[in-house]
Amino acid sequence: MTLTSFGPANRIQRSAETHPLTWRLRDDGEAVWLDEYQAKNGYAAARKAFADMDQDAIVQTVKDAGLKGRGGAGFPTGVKWGLMPKDESINIRYLLCNADEMEPNTWKDRMLMEQLPHLLIEGMLISARALKTYRGYIFLRGEYTTAAKHLNRAVEEAKAAGLLGKNILGSGFDFELFVHTGAGRYICGEETALINSLEGRRANPRSKPPFPAAVGVWGKPTCVNNVETLCNVPAIIADGVDWYKSLAREGSEDMGTKLMGFSGKVKNPGLWELPFGVTGRELFEDYAGGMRDGFKLKAWQPGGAGTGFLLPEHLDAQMYAGGIAKVGTRMGTGLAMAVDDSVNMVSLLRNMEQFFARESCGFCTPCRDGLPWSVKLLMAIEQGKGQPGDIETLLGLVGFLGPGKTFCAHAPGAVEPLGSAIKYFRPEFEAGIAPVSAAVPPLARPIVVGA
């Protein structure tokens, strides 16, 4: 996996001042264990938080820094933390790390967990202090076996060093942390489905309200944050709000840096820590190196399979939530995919919708029935057997399964790329519509009910 720095061709080295997430990474790609992590100023932020800051100060600092969720939704982290009850009589609270990274074309959290497991642990430790949670879980995608191995080792190292467990850093604060591997369901990326799965239940999303901050794991107040989100916390606490905000490019409404990437038939597919506000063109040309020889960029997705397709002319959009929204889709996870000119968009969408249909929890009718219906129509169009009206039916499904029409955000994310593909590449869909057969005679008379 490639990881470069701010400058093209690796001319600028990663540093703590510019790369809060990745400056500690080893050049050989091996994990950074406790001794090396502490030698690189690891757990200094946790010591500062425990010694000099109370709960409200930590929450306010994260809020003032403008940290937003890095899993795709982009909800302000400090605001989310502020929803946790302040009633001191509630002594059982939970902190969950959403590490169920199953968004197609997304692998950023995997890199952090495999190579910097203590960064995540430190982020969770500070967050637990802020939220007064006594127990935490890392809900990990089951296929991430190396990440599980490294996280479990790092947890044991932290326990032995007095950084987890009882009376952490002599503060009287207790925090236990467990790694929980899931069975492999995309829907577990939805926080309440994750909670159900952790409890041993079917991974269905829950009705909200109540929100997890009020009623979460086993009925107790719970905060759920993404891996990359939690990994930002130590640097904010260590170096302050103004510094963190200064990392983003001018014009960006999102603060700090973001792990971004590009896959597909590009010359240098990889993952980079970049400031919010870089353009898609910088990411595509300066870091990913543009398309391989013999291929031309046809379309691209800015942040995973659940984001809409964009055209090459949209590459000048800034990579932050509002910047990508201006060209009609979402930032998502920030890991882009290039679609080359050899790809048929109907086949690509059929493949995507098959995945989303399979991963639906089946709880609500629009998602359970609508996604397989879209797959059936796309398969027919792909085989040149589509019927007149099929494209309109697909567009109708895009509307029926849109935001606010289903129980959770799974279906809206699933149909967003479908709607954008039809918008920009409709002729490819029309090419799969079979001509009306002349052998079918017209009806001799209209069908009348009861006739």
UniProtKB/TrEMBL annotation:
* Alphabetized SUPFAM superfamilies for the sequence: Nqo1 FMN-binding domain-like (SSF142019), Nqo1 middle domain-like (SSF142984), Nqo1C-terminal domain-like (SSF140490)
Catalysis performed (reactions): a quinone + NADH + 5 H(+)(in) = a quinol + NAD(+) + 4 H(+)(out)
Q: What is its EC number?
A: 7.1.1.-
What's in the keyword line of the UniProt record?
Answer: 4Fe-4S, Flavoprotein, FMN, Iron, Iron-sulfur, Metal-binding, NAD, Oxidoreductase, Quinone, Translocase
Q: Name one GO molecular function term.
A: metal ion binding
Q: Does the keyword NAD apply?
A: yes
According to its UniProt entry, what is the function of this protein?
NDH-1 shuttles electrons from NADH, via FMN and iron-sulfur (Fe-S) centers, to quinones in the respiratory chain.
Protein name per its UniProtKB record: NADH-quinone oxidoreductase subunit F
Protein source organism: Pseudomonas hamedanensis
